[in-house]
Specification:
Keywords: Disulfide bond, Leucine-rich repeat, Repeat, Signal. The chain starts with a helix and ends with a strand. 12% of the residues lie in helices and 24% in strands. The longest helix has 28 residues. With 329 residues, the chain is α/β, with parallel strands linked by helices. A nine-stranded mixed sheet has the order 1-2-3-5-7-8-10-12-13, with no helix packed on it. It has a five-stranded antiparallel sheet with strand order 16-17-22-20-19, with no helix packed on it. Strand 14, helix 2 and strand 15 form a beta-alpha-beta unit.
Length: 329
Amino acid sequence: MCSSVRAWWWRGALLGTMMLLSWTSSAVEGCPSMCTCKWKSGKEWVECANRDLKGLPQGAREETQVLDLSNNHLVSLPPECFHALGLINLQRLYLSRSHISLIAARAFVGLVGLVELDLSENLIEEVPSETFPSYSNLMKLLLNGNPIRVIRRGAFQHLAHLTNLELSLCQLSSIEQGAFDGLHLLEWLRLDGNRLTRVPDHTLPLGGSLRGLTLHNNPWLCDCRLQATQAWLKESAPAAPQESEPVCDAPSKLRGKQIKAVNELACLPQIQLQDRIEAYDGDNVTLKCDVYAVPAAKLTWWFNGELCELQNENDTLLSSASSATAFPR
Protein backbone atom coordinates (compact mmCIF):
# COMPACT_ATOMS: atom_id res chain seq x y z
CA MET A 1 0.00 0.00 0.00
CA CYS A 2 2.83 2.42 0.94
CA SER A 3 4.63 1.54 -2.27
CA SER A 4 1.51 2.39 -4.29
CA VAL A 5 1.07 5.76 -2.56
CA ARG A 6 4.76 6.60 -3.00
CA ALA A 7 4.60 5.79 -6.72
CA TRP A 8 1.48 7.93 -7.12
CA TRP A 9 3.19 10.86 -5.35
CA TRP A 10 6.26 10.66 -7.58
CA ARG A 11 4.13 10.51 -10.72
CA GLY A 12 2.21 13.62 -9.56
CA ALA A 13 5.39 15.51 -8.75
CA LEU A 14 6.93 14.56 -12.09
CA LEU A 15 3.80 15.66 -13.96
CA GLY A 16 3.79 18.99 -12.09
CA THR A 17 7.45 19.57 -12.92
CA MET A 18 6.84 18.80 -16.58
CA MET A 19 3.90 21.22 -16.67
CA LEU A 20 5.99 23.97 -15.03
CA LEU A 21 8.84 23.41 -17.48
CA SER A 22 6.36 23.46 -20.35
CA TRP A 23 4.84 26.78 -19.14
CA THR A 24 8.28 28.33 -18.60
CA SER A 25 9.40 27.29 -22.07
CA SER A 26 6.20 28.65 -23.54
CA ALA A 27 6.57 31.96 -21.67
CA VAL A 28 10.17 32.40 -22.79
CA GLU A 29 9.28 31.65 -26.40
CA GLY A 30 6.50 34.28 -26.28
CA CYS A 31 8.57 36.96 -24.57
CA PRO A 32 10.54 39.75 -26.28
CA SER A 33 14.26 39.32 -25.62
CA MET A 34 14.64 42.72 -23.96
CA CYS A 35 11.64 42.27 -21.66
CA THR A 36 10.63 40.22 -18.64
CA CYS A 37 7.48 38.12 -18.80
CA LYS A 38 5.69 36.74 -15.76
CA TRP A 39 2.40 36.12 -14.03
CA LYS A 40 1.54 38.92 -11.64
CA SER A 41 -1.72 39.57 -9.80
CA GLY A 42 -3.39 36.88 -11.85
CA LYS A 43 -2.47 38.44 -15.19
CA GLU A 44 0.16 37.84 -17.86
CA TRP A 45 2.63 40.74 -17.74
CA VAL A 46 5.27 41.85 -20.20
CA GLU A 47 7.60 44.34 -18.52
CA CYS A 48 9.79 46.39 -20.87
CA ALA A 49 10.35 49.48 -18.73
CA ASN A 50 13.71 51.30 -18.72
CA ARG A 51 15.03 49.51 -21.82
CA ASP A 52 15.79 52.58 -23.98
CA LEU A 53 13.38 51.23 -26.61
CA LYS A 54 12.79 53.29 -29.77
CA GLY A 55 9.81 51.21 -30.88
CA LEU A 56 7.36 48.60 -29.64
CA PRO A 57 8.93 45.20 -28.83
CA GLN A 58 7.99 42.22 -30.98
CA GLY A 59 7.37 38.66 -29.87
CA ALA A 60 4.95 39.09 -26.96
CA ARG A 61 2.17 36.51 -26.65
CA GLU A 62 -1.31 37.37 -27.84
CA GLU A 63 -2.53 36.50 -24.35
CA THR A 64 -0.56 39.39 -22.83
CA GLN A 65 -2.86 41.42 -20.57
CA VAL A 66 -0.47 43.98 -19.09
CA LEU A 67 2.30 45.75 -21.03
CA ASP A 68 4.70 48.12 -19.28
CA LEU A 69 6.71 50.35 -21.63
CA SER A 70 7.48 53.14 -19.17
CA ASN A 71 10.72 55.13 -19.36
CA ASN A 72 11.61 54.52 -23.00
CA HIS A 73 12.05 56.68 -26.13
CA LEU A 74 9.03 55.76 -28.24
CA VAL A 75 8.34 59.35 -29.45
CA SER A 76 5.29 58.35 -31.54
CA LEU A 77 2.60 55.67 -31.73
CA PRO A 78 1.70 54.87 -35.37
CA PRO A 79 -1.69 53.54 -36.55
CA GLU A 80 -2.65 50.04 -35.36
CA CYS A 81 0.78 49.54 -33.77
CA PHE A 82 -0.49 47.20 -31.04
CA HIS A 83 -2.94 45.34 -33.27
CA ALA A 84 -0.13 44.64 -35.76
CA LEU A 85 1.79 42.85 -32.99
CA GLY A 86 -1.21 40.74 -32.04
CA LEU A 87 -1.63 42.47 -28.68
CA ILE A 88 -5.40 42.52 -28.79
CA ASN A 89 -6.04 41.32 -25.23
CA LEU A 90 -4.33 44.16 -23.39
CA GLN A 91 -6.16 45.37 -20.30
CA ARG A 92 -3.50 47.69 -18.88
CA LEU A 93 -0.95 49.70 -20.85
CA TYR A 94 1.77 51.78 -19.21
CA LEU A 95 3.52 54.33 -21.47
CA SER A 96 4.63 57.00 -19.01
CA ARG A 97 7.86 58.97 -19.44
CA SER A 98 8.49 57.65 -22.96
CA HIS A 99 8.93 60.98 -24.80
CA ILE A 100 5.68 60.44 -26.71
CA SER A 101 4.55 63.55 -28.59
CA LEU A 102 2.52 62.09 -31.46
CA ILE A 103 -0.31 59.55 -31.23
CA ALA A 104 -2.10 58.47 -34.40
CA ALA A 105 -5.90 58.45 -34.23
CA ARG A 106 -5.91 54.67 -34.86
CA ALA A 107 -2.92 53.82 -32.66
CA PHE A 108 -5.01 51.78 -30.22
CA VAL A 109 -7.31 50.05 -32.70
CA GLY A 110 -8.29 46.59 -31.48
CA LEU A 111 -7.76 47.26 -27.77
CA VAL A 112 -11.44 46.98 -26.87
CA GLY A 113 -10.63 45.39 -23.50
CA LEU A 114 -8.30 48.16 -22.33
CA VAL A 115 -9.36 49.49 -18.92
CA GLU A 116 -6.24 51.41 -17.82
CA LEU A 117 -3.95 53.66 -19.87
CA ASP A 118 -1.00 55.58 -18.45
CA LEU A 119 0.32 58.33 -20.75
CA SER A 120 1.67 60.50 -17.97
CA GLU A 121 4.79 62.67 -18.18
CA ASN A 122 5.14 62.62 -21.94
CA LEU A 123 5.15 65.48 -24.47
CA ILE A 124 1.49 65.30 -25.49
CA GLU A 125 0.01 68.76 -26.17
CA GLU A 126 -3.62 67.79 -26.86
CA VAL A 127 -5.97 65.34 -25.20
CA PRO A 128 -5.86 62.37 -27.65
CA SER A 129 -9.65 62.41 -28.12
CA GLU A 130 -9.52 60.89 -31.61
CA THR A 131 -8.09 57.67 -30.17
CA PHE A 132 -10.82 57.14 -27.56
CA PRO A 133 -13.40 55.33 -29.75
CA SER A 134 -10.90 52.45 -30.06
CA TYR A 135 -11.03 51.71 -26.33
CA SER A 136 -14.32 53.11 -25.09
CA ASN A 137 -14.40 50.74 -22.08
CA LEU A 138 -11.46 52.54 -20.46
CA MET A 139 -11.88 53.17 -16.74
CA LYS A 140 -8.61 54.89 -15.77
CA LEU A 141 -6.71 57.48 -17.82
CA LEU A 142 -3.52 59.21 -16.67
CA LEU A 143 -2.47 62.30 -18.64
CA ASN A 144 -0.75 64.15 -15.82
CA GLY A 145 2.55 65.86 -16.50
CA ASN A 146 1.90 66.58 -20.19
CA PRO A 147 2.00 70.12 -21.67
CA ILE A 148 -1.75 70.19 -22.31
CA ARG A 149 -2.88 73.83 -22.05
CA VAL A 150 -6.52 73.55 -23.12
CA ILE A 151 -9.20 70.89 -22.72
CA ARG A 152 -11.63 71.16 -25.61
CA ARG A 153 -15.39 70.73 -25.50
CA GLY A 154 -16.38 67.05 -25.56
CA ALA A 155 -12.77 65.89 -25.14
CA PHE A 156 -13.79 62.73 -23.26
CA GLN A 157 -17.26 62.08 -24.65
CA HIS A 158 -16.32 58.60 -25.95
CA LEU A 159 -15.17 57.38 -22.53
CA ALA A 160 -18.52 56.78 -20.85
CA HIS A 161 -17.06 54.18 -18.45
CA LEU A 162 -14.21 56.35 -17.17
CA THR A 163 -13.99 56.50 -13.37
CA ASN A 164 -10.49 57.98 -12.84
CA LEU A 165 -9.00 60.91 -14.78
CA GLU A 166 -5.70 62.54 -13.87
CA LEU A 167 -4.75 65.93 -15.37
CA SER A 168 -2.38 67.25 -12.72
CA LEU A 169 0.68 69.34 -13.64
CA CYS A 170 -0.44 69.82 -17.24
CA GLN A 171 0.03 73.60 -17.60
CA LEU A 172 -3.74 73.83 -18.05
CA SER A 173 -4.97 77.40 -18.32
CA SER A 174 -8.35 76.83 -19.98
CA ILE A 175 -11.15 74.28 -19.77
CA GLU A 176 -13.93 74.79 -22.30
CA GLN A 177 -17.55 74.44 -21.29
CA GLY A 178 -18.63 70.85 -21.93
CA ALA A 179 -15.08 69.49 -21.66
CA PHE A 180 -16.19 66.69 -19.33
CA ASP A 181 -19.55 65.95 -20.94
CA GLY A 182 -20.41 62.26 -20.98
CA LEU A 183 -18.36 61.31 -17.90
CA HIS A 184 -21.37 60.19 -15.86
CA LEU A 185 -19.43 57.52 -13.94
CA LEU A 186 -16.41 59.65 -13.08
CA GLU A 187 -15.35 59.23 -9.44
CA TRP A 188 -11.93 60.91 -9.29
CA LEU A 189 -10.69 63.97 -11.16
CA ARG A 190 -7.28 65.54 -10.56
CA LEU A 191 -6.71 69.11 -11.76
CA ASP A 192 -4.14 70.25 -9.21
CA GLY A 193 -0.88 71.96 -10.11
CA ASN A 194 -2.11 73.78 -13.21
CA ARG A 195 -2.65 77.42 -14.25
CA LEU A 196 -6.41 77.58 -13.87
CA THR A 197 -7.95 80.84 -12.70
CA ARG A 198 -11.56 79.94 -13.39
CA VAL A 199 -13.74 77.22 -14.90
CA PRO A 200 -16.96 77.98 -16.83
CA ASP A 201 -20.25 77.29 -15.08
CA HIS A 202 -21.59 73.74 -15.38
CA THR A 203 -18.24 72.46 -16.68
CA LEU A 204 -16.81 70.44 -13.79
CA PRO A 205 -18.67 67.11 -13.37
CA LEU A 206 -19.84 68.03 -9.88
CA GLY A 207 -22.40 65.84 -8.18
CA GLY A 208 -23.38 62.43 -9.49
CA SER A 209 -20.73 59.79 -8.82
CA LEU A 210 -17.83 62.23 -8.25
CA ARG A 211 -16.10 61.44 -4.94
CA GLY A 212 -12.77 63.23 -5.32
CA LEU A 213 -11.67 66.44 -7.03
CA THR A 214 -8.23 68.01 -6.50
CA LEU A 215 -7.96 71.72 -7.29
CA HIS A 216 -5.03 72.95 -5.18
CA ASN A 217 -1.97 74.75 -6.56
CA ASN A 218 -3.94 76.74 -9.15
CA PRO A 219 -4.07 80.59 -9.23
CA TRP A 220 -7.83 80.75 -8.64
CA LEU A 221 -9.70 84.01 -9.20
CA CYS A 222 -12.30 83.93 -6.44
CA ASP A 223 -15.36 85.58 -7.94
CA CYS A 224 -18.96 84.59 -8.62
CA ARG A 225 -17.90 82.10 -11.30
CA LEU A 226 -16.55 79.81 -8.59
CA GLN A 227 -19.86 79.56 -6.73
CA ALA A 228 -20.76 76.06 -7.96
CA THR A 229 -17.27 74.78 -7.20
CA GLN A 230 -17.34 76.35 -3.75
CA ALA A 231 -20.70 74.73 -3.02
CA TRP A 232 -19.32 71.30 -4.00
CA LEU A 233 -16.23 71.78 -1.81
CA LYS A 234 -18.43 72.60 1.17
CA GLU A 235 -20.97 69.83 0.66
CA SER A 236 -18.47 67.07 -0.17
CA ALA A 237 -15.94 67.89 2.55
CA PRO A 238 -16.85 64.98 4.87
CA ALA A 239 -17.02 62.35 2.11
CA ALA A 240 -14.17 63.61 -0.10
CA PRO A 241 -11.56 65.48 1.95
CA GLN A 242 -9.03 67.47 -0.08
CA GLU A 243 -5.35 66.49 -0.14
CA SER A 244 -4.70 70.21 0.16
CA GLU A 245 -7.42 72.85 0.28
CA PRO A 246 -7.56 75.08 -2.84
CA VAL A 247 -7.03 78.76 -2.03
CA CYS A 248 -7.67 82.07 -3.77
CA ASP A 249 -4.90 83.86 -5.66
CA ALA A 250 -7.01 86.89 -6.59
CA PRO A 251 -8.39 89.39 -5.76
CA SER A 252 -5.54 90.41 -3.49
CA LYS A 253 -7.75 90.79 -0.41
CA LEU A 254 -8.64 87.08 -0.63
CA ARG A 255 -5.20 85.75 -1.56
CA GLY A 256 -4.33 82.67 0.47
CA LYS A 257 -7.86 82.19 1.78
CA GLN A 258 -9.52 78.80 1.30
CA ILE A 259 -12.16 78.92 -1.43
CA LYS A 260 -14.77 77.21 0.71
CA ALA A 261 -14.20 79.75 3.52
CA VAL A 262 -15.00 82.84 1.41
CA ASN A 263 -18.29 84.34 2.60
CA GLU A 264 -19.40 85.85 -0.69
CA LEU A 265 -17.92 85.27 -4.14
CA ALA A 266 -18.67 88.52 -5.96
CA CYS A 267 -18.29 89.77 -9.52
CA LEU A 268 -17.77 93.44 -10.36
CA PRO A 269 -20.57 94.94 -12.49
CA GLN A 270 -20.19 94.43 -16.21
CA ILE A 271 -21.95 97.20 -18.12
CA GLN A 272 -22.92 97.35 -21.78
CA LEU A 273 -24.34 100.60 -23.17
CA GLN A 274 -25.89 101.43 -26.51
CA ASP A 275 -23.42 103.29 -28.70
CA ARG A 276 -26.02 105.39 -30.54
CA ILE A 277 -29.63 106.47 -29.94
CA GLU A 278 -31.80 108.50 -32.35
CA ALA A 279 -34.80 110.49 -31.08
CA TYR A 280 -36.93 113.52 -32.00
CA ASP A 281 -36.92 116.65 -29.88
CA GLY A 282 -39.56 116.41 -27.16
CA ASP A 283 -39.93 112.62 -27.30
CA ASN A 284 -39.26 110.29 -24.41
CA VAL A 285 -36.09 108.23 -24.75
CA THR A 286 -35.53 104.68 -23.53
CA LEU A 287 -31.94 104.12 -22.51
CA LYS A 288 -30.87 100.51 -22.21
CA CYS A 289 -28.11 99.57 -19.80
CA ASP A 290 -27.20 95.88 -19.56
CA VAL A 291 -25.62 95.09 -16.21
CA TYR A 292 -24.42 91.82 -14.76
CA ALA A 293 -23.24 91.77 -11.17
CA VAL A 294 -23.12 89.43 -8.17
CA PRO A 295 -24.43 90.44 -5.70
CA ALA A 296 -27.09 92.49 -7.48
CA ALA A 297 -26.02 96.00 -8.44
CA LYS A 298 -28.01 99.15 -7.70
CA LEU A 299 -28.31 101.28 -10.81
CA THR A 300 -28.76 105.06 -10.89
CA TRP A 301 -29.01 107.35 -13.91
CA TRP A 302 -27.58 110.86 -14.24
CA PHE A 303 -28.11 113.46 -16.97
CA ASN A 304 -26.18 116.74 -17.17
CA GLY A 305 -25.15 116.27 -13.56
CA GLU A 306 -28.71 115.62 -12.35
CA LEU A 307 -30.12 112.39 -10.94
CA CYS A 308 -32.83 110.99 -13.21
CA GLU A 309 -36.15 109.50 -12.21
CA LEU A 310 -36.78 105.91 -13.26
CA GLN A 311 -40.08 104.86 -14.77
CA ASN A 312 -39.81 101.55 -12.93
CA GLU A 313 -37.99 101.58 -9.59
CA ASN A 314 -37.62 97.78 -9.77
CA ASP A 315 -35.12 98.29 -12.57
CA THR A 316 -32.59 99.70 -10.14
CA LEU A 317 -31.59 96.29 -8.72
CA LEU A 318 -29.98 94.31 -11.46
CA SER A 319 -28.23 90.98 -11.61
CA SER A 320 -28.77 90.48 -15.33
CA ALA A 321 -29.66 92.50 -18.42
CA SER A 322 -32.34 95.12 -17.91
CA SER A 323 -33.50 98.48 -19.21
CA ALA A 324 -35.20 101.56 -17.86
CA THR A 325 -36.82 104.73 -19.19
CA ALA A 326 -35.29 107.77 -17.52
CA PHE A 327 -36.52 111.37 -17.20
CA PRO A 328 -34.39 114.29 -15.98
CA ARG A 329 -35.80 116.01 -12.90
